[in-house]
UniProtKB/TrEMBL annotation:
Keyword line: Membrane, Transmembrane, Transmembrane helix
Coiled coil (UniProt feature): none
Every Lnb N-terminal periplasmic domain range: 23-154
One Pfam family, short name: Lnb_N
Signal sequence annotation: none
Entry superkingdom: Bacteria
Spans through the membrane: 247-265, 277-295, 301-322, 329-347, 353-371
UniProt protein name: DUF4105 domain-containing protein
Lnb-like transmembrane domain mapped to chain residues: 244-371
Source species of the chain: Sandaracinomonas limnophila
Length: 374
């Protein structure tokens, strides 16, 4: 108890106290055009005119100058931090550079609660506390803010009553924010494993800022609503309407599948050259998926059926089975390779239908080679 009182006195001395006119708001920023901004953003705004405080606290900040940045990003070990900026700078950035709608939910908190949240955020900003291991589905800019308020005494979110946030998996929520026929969308779904297909609870779905915004409208502080006022800060006309993409994966992969099927039926002499190209490209992607599933800290990429669908063993074995004269040996391999790829394709396309077209060329060619070597 004495340690707690000492810490409380120390925090008051270091960070100061908010005045009676202070306020706290949840700021929600609409999705942007770039991939990193596609899912929106959340911030906590603390304003106190008496003490000249007008700060927006944001989780999910990272530094491009971090040593081995790309390797750490790939491995899932890149440190993320909390940051704080003057709110007028934040508004200027999102309105003039990113052109993204911003809205504030002003929260009905008493002075003690406001100060406790303020002290918690300022303590979190200290160099020894600011870093954390970011997890897109589990621990991000939105979920961290959810946790800040859920830990605050008096605040309660009736998660069981928010039915509209309880029906989708993590992957399904993610895909609501991605245009379907893009290589990025197909690539992200190709990399995700079984854990992304677990049904998210209402609380877990608030890894998305829009869902956190929605949930806060149900939240209570004691017996009163937590949100006392919703204030638009900046409004941008929606520019994220989908467009037909003739070079998108659906058309391209469909044409590739037709070409592979045509070559397999006609049995052109260059079919074995095609095999080496096709299975090399797909095999390298399969090994990458295998690495992401087993060699990184990205839990949601583990147990990935796409790895079975593309089958890493096809590369480098394609340089032997494509035109080997030992038909019996490779017929057995190709038989089981076809079965494994078919199982992987069925599972993967069940969770994201577009992956059927990704795996189809490999499945067609594996079957054709098996039949030829029987």
């Amino acid at each position: 108890m004495k340690k707690f009182i000492f810490f409380l006195l120390l925090s008051v001395q270091v960070f100061g106290q908010l005045g009676p006119q202070s306020s706290i708001s949840l700021i929600t920023v609409a999705p942007g055009k770039e991939l990193y901004s596609r899912f929106g953003h959340s911030m906590i705004l603390i304003q106190d005119p008496e003490n000249g405080i007008d700060k927006a606290y944001s989780y999910g900040t990272f530094d491009f100058n971090t040593d081995n940045f790309y390797w750490k990003f790939l491995k899932g070990t890149l440190p993320y931090t909390i940051s704080a900026n003057q709110f007028q700078d934040v508004v200027y950035f999102y309105s003039n550079y990113e052109h993204r709608t911003m809205v504030a939910q002003k929260l009905d908190l008493n002075l003690v609660q406001r100060n406790e949240i303020f002290q918690r955020l300022e303590t979190n900003l200290l160099p020894q506390n600011k870093e954390y291991q970011y997890k897109f589905f589990y621990d991000n800019c939105s979920s961290r803010i959810r946790d800040v308020f859920e830990k605050q005494q008096g605040i309660r979110v009736p998660w069981g009553q928010i039915d509209s946030l309880q029906s989708l998996s993590y992957r399904q929520w993610m895909n609501k924010y991605l245009p379907y026929n893009t290589w990025v969308t197909f690539g992200m779904n190709l990399a995700l494993g079984y854990r992304s297909d677990v049904k998210a609870s209402a609380s877990q779905s608030t890894y998305l800022p829009d869902n956190l915004y929605y949930a806060f409208n149900f939240a209570k502080n004691g017996n009163a609503p937590l949100v006392k006022e919703i204030v638009p800060i900046y409004e941008e006309k929606d520019t994220l309407l989908g467009k037909i993409n003739p070079m998108g994966p659906i058309i391209v992969l469909f044409l590739v599948s037709l070409f592979v099927l045509f070559v397999s039926i006609k049995q052109f002499k260059f079919q074995f050259t095609l095999d080496k190209i096709l299975f090399t490209v797909y095999g390298l992607f399969a090994w990458l998926i295998f690495f992401l599933a087993t060699g990184t800290d990205h839990e949601v990429m583990s147990w990935n059926a796409s790895c079975l669908m593309l089958l890493p063993t096809n590369f480098p074995l394609v340089f032997w089975f494509a035109n080997s004269k030992k038909k019996d040996i490779w017929a057995v391999y190709l038989k089981y390779a076809f079965i494994v790829s078919a199982i992987g394709l069925i599972i993967a396309s069940y969770y994201f239908a577009g992956l059927f077209l990704v795996g189809l060329p490999v499945l067609i060619r594996t079957y054709a080679l098996w039949i030829q070597k029987k």
